[in-house]
Structure formats: structure tokens, C-alpha cells
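Q: Sequence in, structure out?
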Amino acid sequence: MSIMSRDPLVVGSIVGDVVDYFPASALLRVLYGGRELTCGSELRPSQVSNEPVVQIITGSRGSGALYTLVMVDPDAPSPSNPSKREYLHWLVTDIPEGAGANYGNEVMDYESPRPSAGIHRFAFIVFRQAVRQSIYAPGWRANFNTRDFAACYSLGTPVAGAYFNCQREGGCGGRRYR
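A: Exactly. Output:
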């Protein structure tokens, strides 16, 4: 079994739908209400209504590296018709190495997930910035494209990622992977 076939971002189709495969070089910790997210976790909208605590952990301290965090829903408005893929829920730049997203520059404020149909994946993708630069808020949230965004700002490949599944309160069923 290859490393790629066991990668939760591959299994959850984040690799493919949002980004191309990348070898993670940082650890991304996402905590909602003190509960640490694991890739593929099932969370309800009420559990993710408030902005999470996000930490980017690398093995090298003191390098002064900065990071950009993108949170998107590749299943908007519904997994069977993702015509608004990718919906941008949060964009934070200039996050200092070892610090939380709250120390960065919030370019697009956190919009809590509120899926109305089906089970949605919400992906957090982290890029290491080569330099501190002005990154501008897109004019819309729907049809954001993480790959194009990264290319536009020369961010290169991601260094970390995570995702969770979410459906409307009272929804039932599980996600079926390809």
C-alpha cells in the first residue's frame, strides 16, 4: 500500500478536488471548542460555529517563516452539485511560525459552516510564504480556487492540511468515498 493511498487528504478527495498531492512538512492542529480535529471527523454546525484555534507546528524554530491558511468547502452548495466549489470560509495570511492563526492577518473573516444539503468537507490548507506580501481579499467567496490562489501569490505547494465532514443539524448518513 502506498503512502498516498493512506493519506487522509487523498482518501477524503481533498487531494484532487482542492489541491494536488503534497508531502506534508508541517503539522496543522485545529481545535474547535478545545476538541482537536482529526482528518475526516464528523462535526455538526453547532460545533464549528465559532472560529477554531489553529496552530502550525514545524520542526524549525526561529526561522521567521510566515504561513497562509485557507479554509474552503469543495462541496458547496451540495456534494451532488458543487457548482460553487470551492466556497471560501476563511483566509488568514502572515501567521508566524509556531503561532496561532489569531496572530496572522485575517484577510477574509471566518464564516461558520452551515451546509443545507448533504455531507460537506471543510478543508484547511496551509502554505509557507516565501516573503511577507500583500494578499488581497477576493471579491467573492463562491468559486474560490485554492490552486489558482496559490499560483497567483507564488505560494508553492501546501505544507499541511486537514479536513472535517459536516452536515446540517439533524442530518443523517455517511460520506461515501470514490
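The mean pLDDT is 90.
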